[in-house]
TrEMBL record:
<dbReference type="InterPro" id="IPR009091">
    <property type="entry name" value="RCC1/BLIP-II"/>
</dbReference>
<feature type="repeat" description="RCC1">
    <location>
        <begin position="252"/>
        <end position="303"/>
    </location>
</feature>
<dbReference type="InterPro" id="IPR000210">
    <property type="entry name" value="BTB/POZ_dom"/>
</dbReference>
<dbReference type="InterPro" id="IPR000408">
    <property type="entry name" value="Reg_chr_condens"/>
</dbReference>
<feature type="repeat" description="RCC1">
    <location>
        <begin position="147"/>
        <end position="199"/>
    </location>
</feature>
<feature type="repeat" description="RCC1">
    <location>
        <begin position="41"/>
        <end position="92"/>
    </location>
</feature>
<dbReference type="InterPro" id="IPR011333">
    <property type="entry name" value="SKP1/BTB/POZ_sf"/>
</dbReference>
<dbReference type="InterPro" id="IPR051625">
    <property type="entry name" value="Signaling_Regulatory_Domain"/>
</dbReference>
<keyword id="KW-0677">Repeat</keyword>
<protein>
    <recommendedName>
        <fullName>BTB domain-containing protein</fullName>
    </recommendedName>
</protein>
<feature type="repeat" description="RCC1">
    <location>
        <begin position="94"/>
        <end position="146"/>
    </location>
</feature>
<dbReference type="Pfam" id="PF00651">
    <property type="entry name" value="BTB"/>
</dbReference>
<feature type="repeat" description="RCC1">
    <location>
        <begin position="200"/>
        <end position="251"/>
    </location>
</feature>
<dbReference type="Pfam" id="PF00415">
    <property type="entry name" value="RCC1"/>
</dbReference>
<feature type="domain" description="BTB">
    <location>
        <begin position="370"/>
        <end position="433"/>
    </location>
</feature>
């Protein structure tokens, strides 16, 4: 669980108030401003309120939280901020609101007047659903459900991607090389912008004097440019620091480039890099990278939950990834970044209060009050009949026909069946990708469509060159079309390594024949 108390700006809030916080963001030149959302979807702000960045309708500082009435009930899904500061959010309905500093039209309302209250950003966004926003020092970019990117604000280095260096007063679609392409992830450095496509390609534009665009040169770019050095490498997430960039691949590797005066590239030296450089992580698979445009700190999280940090850490220059005791990337920014701001919108769980979901999770496989047990591979799993009837049509029919207190299961393994029952209690699955194949089989058998989707996502996150063919075979067998296409593309993108694995050598003849035919149509064998 995240502890919002790690951020000093929250130190004066009483425990009963802290327990109600569901989302939070700390920002400002000295991490002295904060906005948070409660479990009842009320939005509050506190801090110094520079340029009206708290959205309270005035520029008065406040040491006690004040409610932002216009945002209450809006369900914020993404939040970002600049150094003015200005603040931009996206709501669950796909709307964008902005407020605060506006000297460069970074609020997107066509003026340069500061915004004291949140206002809807509507120009060119009517009918669009925005899912993610990102801010540089004084510019803003937004990502829509269609994979389009819109940008506005300060443009002295081309960071808006309009082909000029004139400031952009209202949202404008970033087209050029991104035309007809689908963007899935965005990030901003101080004066640059980055975008990751659904095919794993990465594009950058804006300020580049430190090589933070990864293009092999130091020239600013006024339109998006593909990072050619990452050709054949599939990026799934990008994060930008003040003047450096981190990129996470689909295989869990991290590349870095840009400014390196604090060792923020993790290369062991302080030399800038204009092209992506692979960071040595000692073979541990990474699942998240984190950086913030206000600092020179870099953070990553491993598949096993370990958190590493490097770069500027409380004034020290840490040139290699350093293992911490933290369990969240957010904690590094709270304790070691300068300023100690949040790198994204936090989600915070209370420590003492258990929600219904948390209570159910705690009672799973607990014999104390269970009224049914499954016997699988000689092991017992304790559950509750009422919950199983509520959650699963299969069990509703089965348990209405029997009063048995013990049910034996033979067609599935203990590990898989326990994961299935735990899913009914928690809505989540926690299995390595190879075991998720068995759960995919079960979800197909029981016609649990949501579980099937979760299994597919788990398999996607855990795919490697070694297991790709095994996972592809499973996707074909269980008619998981989306997963099949994902595994196929991964195999094609890593064709040389995949074809050298034992799994490829043992591949079913018909599947191999279809794979080669499809890969050929895909252009995999062209010189």
């Amino acid at each position: 669980m995240l502890d919002v108390g790690k951020w000093p700006v929250f130190a004066l809030l009483p425990p009963e108030e802290l327990r109600l916080i569901r989302q939070a963001c700390v920002f400002g030149s000295a991490a002295n401003e904060a906005i948070y959302v409660t479990v009842s979807d009320e939005v509050f702000a506190l801090g110094t309120n520079c340029s009206g960045c708290l959205g309270l309708g005035d520029t008065q500082s406040t040491i006690e939280p004040r409610r932002i009435d216009i945002l209450c009930g809006k369900k914020i899904v993404s939040l970002s901020y600049g150094t003015g500061p200005h603040v931009v959010i996206a709501t669950a309905d796909g709307e964008v609101y902005s407020w605060g500093h506006n000297g460069y039209s970074q609020l997107g309302n066509g003026t340069t007047n500061h915004g004291l209250t949140p206002a809807l950003v509507s120009t060119n966004l009517i009918g669009k659903r925005v899912t993610e926003v990102a801010c540089g020092s004084h510019h803003t970019i937004a990502l829509t459900t269609e994979g389009e990117v819109y940008a506005w604000g300060y443009n002295n280095s081309g960071q808006v991607g309009s082909g000029s260096t004139a400031n952009q007063p209202t949202p404008r679609r970033v087209s050029s090389c991104l035309q007809n392409k689908v963007v899935v992830n965005i990030a901003c450095g101080q004066l640059c912008s980055m975008a990751v496509l659904d095919n794993g390609e990465t594009y950058g534009w804006g300020y580049n004097c430190n090589g933070q665009l990864g293009l092999g040169n130091n020239g600013n770019q006024q339109t998006p440019c593909r990072i050619a050095a990452l050709q054949g490498i599939n990026i799934v997430q990008v994060a930008c620091g003040y003047a450096h960039t981190l990129a996470l691949t689909d295989e869990g590797f991290i590349y870095s480039w840009g400014a390196n005066s604090y060792g923020q590239l993790g290369t062991g030296n302080k030399s800038n890099q204009a092209v992506p450089t692979l960071i040595n992580m000692e073979k541990e698979r990474m699942v998240e990278v984190a950086a913030c445009h206000t600092s020179h700190t870099s953070v990553a999280k491993t598949q096993s939950g370990q958190v590493l940090m490097w770069g500027q850490c409380r004034g020290q220059a840490v040139a290699y990834p350093h293992l911490t005791h933290f369990t969240s990337t957010d904690d590094v920014f709270a304790c070691f970044a300068t300023p100690a701001v949040t790198w994204h919108l936090l989600s915070v769980d209370g420590d003492d209060y258990l929600t219904v979901a948390q209570s159910l999770k705690r009672e799973f496989d607990s014999p104390e009050i269970s009224d049914l047990k499954f016997l699988v591979d000689g092991k017992c799993i304790h559950v509750h009949k009422a919950l199983l009837k509520i959650r699963c049509e299969h069990f509703r029919a089965l348990l209405n026909e029997t009063d048995e207190e013990t049910i034996e299961i033979h067609q599935f393994s203990y590990l898989v069946y326990r994961a299935f029952l735990e899913y009914l209690y928690t809505d989540t699955i926690n299995l390595p990708p190879e075991d998720a194949i068995g759960l995919l089989d079960l979800s197909t058998y029981y016609r649990e469509s949501r579980l099937k989707r979760l299994c597919q996502e788990t398999i996607k996150r855990g795919i490697t060159e070694e297991n790709a063919i095994t996972l592809l075979s499973a996707a074909v067998k269980y008619e998981a079309r989306d997963l099949e296409e994902f595994c196929f593309k991964f195999c094609v993108n890593h064709l040389t390594a995949v074809t050298q694995t034992q799994a490829f050598a043992d591949m079913d003849h018909d599947l191999l024949k279809n794979f080669i035919s499809k890969a050929s149509r895909y252009g995999a064998f062209k010189n």
